[in-house]
Amino acid sequence: YAMLLSLIFLIVLVAAVVGFVFRHEIKTNFESNLNLALKNYNVTADQHSEAVDTIQRTLHCCGVQNYSDWEKTDYFAQRGIPRSCCKSQDDCSVEDLRDPNKAKLKVFVDGCFFLVTSTMESKMSVVAGISFGIACFQLVGIILACCLSQYITNN
């Protein structure tokens, strides 16, 4: 049992170190995947398009760096900026979303990349604290399992 707990402890420790060391690569990959999701955004509501809509609605953001990122997509040429960028769904017409100057007043102007990464970084202290607590319990479990094993061996 102590060996199993030690193995799990080491796996969690390695995952935490790798996550910390490669956090910049994770950000870069997220940004490139978000750009790709915007480029391939469509109306058929695939998983990537739904994820983009959910991020934009939840974090009140639009595009990767800002709302003008949508102007480089095929979707913008057909329909304009998506409705998930609108500040108010009632006050957002198709004509407004096709004109970048009018859209600036109707949609969220901040990009999603900065908001997602800053939200993740602000929650990292909570995740680190919980992970540290679990690691402490695992270490206590390992010590108690070794003590029990030693006690059984002596008797």
From TrEMBL:
<dbReference type="GO" id="GO:0005886">
    <property type="term" value="C:plasma membrane"/>
</dbReference>
<dbReference type="InterPro" id="IPR018499">
    <property type="entry name" value="Tetraspanin/Peripherin"/>
</dbReference>
<comment type="function">
    <text>May be involved in cell proliferation and cell motility.</text>
</comment>
<feature type="transmembrane region" description="Helical">
    <location>
        <begin position="126"/>
        <end position="148"/>
    </location>
</feature>
<dbReference type="Pfam" id="PF00335">
    <property type="entry name" value="Tetraspanin"/>
</dbReference>
<keyword id="KW-0812">Transmembrane</keyword>
<dbReference type="InterPro" id="IPR048232">
    <property type="entry name" value="TSN6/7_LEL"/>
</dbReference>
<keyword id="KW-0472">Membrane</keyword>
<protein>
    <recommendedName>
        <fullName>Tetraspanin-7</fullName>
    </recommendedName>
</protein>
<dbReference type="InterPro" id="IPR008952">
    <property type="entry name" value="Tetraspanin_EC2_sf"/>
</dbReference>
<keyword id="KW-1133">Transmembrane helix</keyword>
<keyword id="KW-0732">Signal</keyword>
<keyword id="KW-0325">Glycoprotein</keyword>
<feature type="signal peptide">
    <location>
        <begin position="1"/>
        <end position="19"/>
    </location>
</feature>
